[in-house]
Amino acid sequence: MADVNRGNRPLSPHLQIYRPQLTSVTSILTRITGNALLLGALLTVWWFLAAATGPEYFAVVDGIMTSILGNLIMLGSLWALWYHTLAGVRHLIWDNAMMLEIETAEKLGWAVIIGSVVLTILTVIVI
Fold first, then answer.
1. Fewer C-beta neighbours within 10 Å, C or N terminus of the chain?
2. Cα(103)–Cα(10) distance, rounded to whole angstroms?
3. CB-based contacts of 109: which residues, under 8 Å, 6+ apart?
4. Are 84 and 34 in contact (CB under 8 A)?
5. pLDDT digits (tens, 9 = 90+) for 38-88
6. Where are the alpha helices (H) located in 54-101, listed in sequence order?
7. Structural fold of domain 21-126
8. What is the SS3 assignment for 12?
9. Residue 127 has what pLDDT?
């Protein structure tokens, strides 16, 4: 039969109790960047469709894409692409049961964060 004292039991500790760890933050950030990449992809498809539609509509969409907001969204998408790629490589390493020790996992987390920023800057400089 069901437990009648269900309301008197303590709740499982959650974000109020546990200190966020780098591995959990990077895991959450991987999910966020994966979804953010969708926004950048949709904007790029919109830009291509506008180019195929006609010069007037393309001028409007191109004005939005080359505005400060459009440039920030594309820069964020570029960073998200590098971050998501490096995080995927990290998970491939973990899938092979390598570098799973806490200290090494933290180093990999920092490598993903710093590497994504560095690669984004290098990509912006080269392009």
1. N
2. 32
3. 22, 23, 25, 26, 90
4. yes
5. 989 999 999 999 999 999 999 999 999 999 999 999 999 999 999 999 999
6. 55-65, 68-95
7. 3 helical TM bundles of succinate and fumarate reductases (1.20.1300)
8. coil
9. 85
Q: How far apart are the first and last CA of the chain?
A: 66
How far, in Å, CA of 20 to CA of 36, rounded?
22
Residue-wise pLDDT for 84-112, tens only, equals 999 999 999 999 999 999 999 999 999 99
Domains of the chain: which residue ranges?
Answer: 21-126
How many CA atoms lie within 13 Å of 26's alpha carbon, on the beta-carbon side?
23
What is the rounded CA–CA span in Å between residue 118 and residue 123? 9
pLDDT at 20: 82
Q: Which pTM value belongs to this model?
A: 0.80
Residue 18's pLDDT is what? 74
- The residue with tokens 């200190």 is 19
